[in-house]
Amino acid sequence: MMLLPLGCFALCPLAQALTPPPDGGYPGGNTAEGQNALGGSSIGGYNTAVGFFSLAALTDASFNTGVGAGTLLANIGANNTAAGAAALLSNTTGSFNTAIGVSAGGDLTTGDNNIDIGFNVVGVAGESNTVRIGNNDITDTFIRGISGATTAGGVAVFVNSNGHLGTTTSSARFKDEIRPMGPASEAILALKPVTFRYKKEIDPQAIPEFGLVAEEVAKVNPDLIIRDKEGKPYTVRYEQINAMLLNEFLKEHRKVQELEKGMGALTAQLREQAAQIQKVNARLQVSW
């Protein structure tokens, strides 16, 4: 007796509107869970949207994954992965981006191939091929598998006050105004090396250290230090001092070479004089 009413309910428009397709039942291998997830108009393939307005603007792109309210809200690109509320919120046409964390990559707009990890690691609009990990509240970083792992043929990695990692290059392709260092390296002769121990909150073991004091180096040559975000002296550019030491060594080496040449000429002259003296002595002995 209940079959007819149930059949009418299943066929009525209201019932169909309130009943979402089963998981994985969307065309093109798409999956959506949450109000306006995938916007209801996606014609791309293999997209996954989980959360309120996740991938809400997507049309014909594929292989996007958004997990969290507002993830990839305006995006129409492809191959993006966002996990965390408002992750990649502003990204429109970007592709191959990965953002993990609440608001991660939230300022990215059209960039491609970015990785943003951490709460509010929003990135920069339009940038591409950039990795950003951790927000401004992060004060310490620990990465396993580096200490004790010896490798050959590598280069040293440096970090600036903005947390930007990179290396220095020696190729002329990246340099302008190349000229001999000359007397500029003489500044290091005024430096005062010291021994010290870091404060206990930095190094509880109080290991003896050897180096320079940035504030003192700044008085000799301000180009030899790196400053923090507040403009205060932070550390010394030891790699630059190494180049200056080499220049001073070469200058002294050339002086030694000139002295050796002078000594060689003087030695030859003394030998010639000694030979003449012997000849004179021989003549005197004959005359006697």
Written overview of the protein:
- This protein is of the alpha/beta class and 288 residues long.
- It has a domain of 135 residues.
- 25% of the residues lie in helices and 13% in strands.
- The chain has four helices and 13 strands.
- The chain has a seven-stranded parallel β-sheet with strand order 1-2-3-4-5-6-7, with no helix packed on it. The chain has a two-stranded antiparallel ribbon with strand order 8-9. A two-stranded antiparallel ribbon has the order 10-11.
- It is elongated and about 130 Å long.
- The protein starts with a helix and ends with a helix.
- The N terminus is likely disordered.
